[in-house]
Amino acid sequence: MSVDTETVKRVARLARIKVSEDQATKMTGELNGILGFVEQLDEVDINGVEPLTSVVEQTMKKRADGVTDGSKSADVTQNAPASEDNFFMVPKVVE
Amino acid sequence: MTDLTKLTIAEARDGLKNKDYTSTELTEAFIGNIEAANAALNAYVAVTAEKARELAKASDAKLAKGEGGALEGIPLGVKDLFATEGVHTQACSHILDGFKPSYESTVTANLWEDGAVMLGKLNMDEFAMGSSNETSYYGNVINPWRKKGSNEALVPGGSSGGSASAVAANLCMGATATDTGGSIRQPAALTGTVGIKPTYGRCSRWGTVAFASSLDQAGPIAHTVRDSAILLKSMASVDPKDTTSVDIEVPDYEAAIGKSVKGLKIGIPAEYRVDGMSGEIDALWQKGIDWLKDAGAEIVDIAMPHTKYALPAYYIVAPAEASSNLARYDGVRYGLRVPGKDIVEMYENTRAEGFGDEVKRRILIGTYVLSAGYYDAYYLKAQKVRTLIKRDFDLAWQNGVDAILTPATPSAAFAIGDKEMHSDPVKMYMQDIFTVTVNMAGLPGISVPAGLDSDGLPLGLQLIGKPFDESTLFQMGQVIEDAAGTFTPEKWWG
Q1: Does some domain include residue A63?
Q2: Which residues of A touch B347 (CB under 8 A)?
Q3: Domain B1-494 coded CATH 3.50.50.60
Q4: B248: left (phi over 0), alpha (psi -120 to 50) or beta
Q5: Catalytic residue among B23, B160, B183, B237
Q6: Which residue of B has its CA nearest to A82?
Q7: B79 in catalytic set
Q8: Which residues have C-beta within 8 Å of that of residue B93, sequence separation ≥ 6?
Q9: Is the ipTM of this complex over 0.90?
Q10: Which segments constitute the Amidase domain (chain B) (predicted)?
Q11: Contacts of B355 in chain A (CB under 8 A)
Q12: Is B199 on the interface with A (CB under 8 A)?
């Protein structure tokens, strides 16, 4: 399978990365190189093989359902490019 | 007076205990080296000299009373991927500009708990994506090794290139690193240092910037096998904050060093003899086989038929996980924000400017393989192939194999900006061809320097172990180190 420039632009939109026409063209070639490389997996017989979901045979650990952390809104927002009163500030999203 | 920065961790630990010198003297010596060398090597992106001096002073007070932890007063460098409270933590990306966490990663907290001294944060490929440390927002790291009679700048490998270069050039005694497809073992091999990626689940991932969560593992880079055992013992832990951290007590890895390998079975997989591999690497591999055989190990041929599919499967799984993990960098919560006419354009502008080309490539591949209609053809298939890769290893262990010996990399260090390497992204990906199988199966792997090539550049051998059997890797790694010796670059910097 290979991608065309329109697909690259659509995927970039999904990934929320702005790409120019030139960049999209360049990336199309690079992504097709990578997709061509992974195509060799088609040689592998995967009939009846289960996908690997965990490399370690361990059931997911569960912790007690209790509050162990919190009241850190100032810490959480301290690295934000824009914040006010421990809220993240974003451009207006509703009219 | 001895150059304190040339000591191993094991030696310094004894010297500090004997009061031959203080941690303050040790730390000052390293700060001096960093100041003199960093302009040439670019291994550090942030030097925390004042913090280091304070920590060293506190360690000296403990050592004076005969107290202190396993790493009391030992100066270390930390890869920029680990969250360090109040200190530069940006995964060497523009998008995390100015990010200083209000928390400490479990791995580094464990090191400070044991008394280690932090010298600063080390350069790396952006978000740990790269095999040459040429994708960092902070510029290329330079390998302290050069070809005989040449001034050409070489890459230190990646993504933990700053860690490897800093250890090789005596800018820290040891360093933390991380490995998703080979990012500890490949740079270790290219700089003549020892690097171990432990079993998935051995080191907590809490507070380490995520790249591909099912593959990422922290580990050390150090001068010797013993030093890497000392560091891993401190870095590893059972952590309730990481649900994939496994409930197995951390053993005393150092106790394995010096133990005989007599009677241990070492598997040699013919599938690791790949097309285009240099004759020197092949010869080195044979040397390693002979050293271990001479030490009493039994050498057996094993089959690993799915080896060649590990790298293509990795380039589906890792980008897929990365595209999900890196979705959080949106210009709202951290670092960089580039304005746009609405919130979507703000996201798009921020991510376009904040991420470098390699990171964008991987996010796009990951987004594509996970997008509607392609999931089964790519991601699900890759996860099935991963089962087969793991099965190859499981069969070897079932047949009584104790560890597997392979080359660590297909080549020695190459030049910065190497045209051939940069002609196609896949060329660079091939650097991880011998290491990536280990991540896909979640196993431990160690890279040990084993010799120099005809240009005088270091080459490494890799030992792959059973899950949570790092001890056997240290035991066998020491045999290689004893036979091969250790390797130090000739000083031309600072």
Answers
A1: no
A2: 16
A3: no
A4: beta
A5: B183
A6: B332
A7: yes
A8: B126, B127, B137, B329, B354, B355, B356, B359
A9: yes
A10: 25-473
A11: 17
A12: yes
